[in-house]
């Protein structure tokens, strides 16, 4: 949520939003303090170890509605959706590094390795709450 929008919310609304995010802001007295704590917690980055590398995943990326909608879909994801999802979680640079790690010397991308990395990321407890 945008900073400006949160600053327009009441103290009670900020308390409710904080609770919805799993962030206790009740100890903060001013709107600015509550917003600062929410923004600080939403900016947290989780380190997820997968395939011998540490991936830095913004926790809020896992709370993106587009990400959760894809993860909640029934059936298998299309290749395009799976790629979009991984880029949304990792960013282009880390995604490319991960795919490089999953690629054999002859250019074959090991789908099992990619799937394992994907499962490791989405199952990470570090990404569940702010």
Description:
- With 130 residues, the protein is mainly alpha-helical.
- The chain has 7 helices and 2 strands.
- The protein has 2 domains: 40 residues, no CATH class; 83 residues, no CATH class.
- Strands 1-2 form a two-stranded antiparallel ribbon.
- A hairpin with a 2-residue loop joins strand 1 and strand 2.
- Helix 2 runs parallel beside helix 3.
- The longest helix has 23 residues.
- The radius of gyration is 18 Å and the shape is elongated.
- It starts with a helix and ends in an 8-residue tail after the last helix.
Task: For the structure shown, list the relevant keywords.
single chain; 130 residues; mainly alpha; two-stranded antiparallel ribbon
Work out the helicity level.
55-70%
Largest sheet, in brief, is: 2 strands, antiparallel
* Count of distinct structural domains: 2
Count of DSSP-assigned helices? 7
**Would you identify the regions where 5 or more consecutive residues have pLDDT less than 50?**
none
Q: What would you call the shape?
A: elongated
Summing up helix and strand content along with how strands pair, one would put the structural category as mainly alpha
Please tally the β strands and state the result: 2
Q: Biggest sheet, strands in spatial order?
A: 1-2
Mean pLDDT level: 94
Cα end-to-end separation: 14 Å
Beta content comes to 5-15%
Element string (H = helix, E = strand): HHHEEHHHH
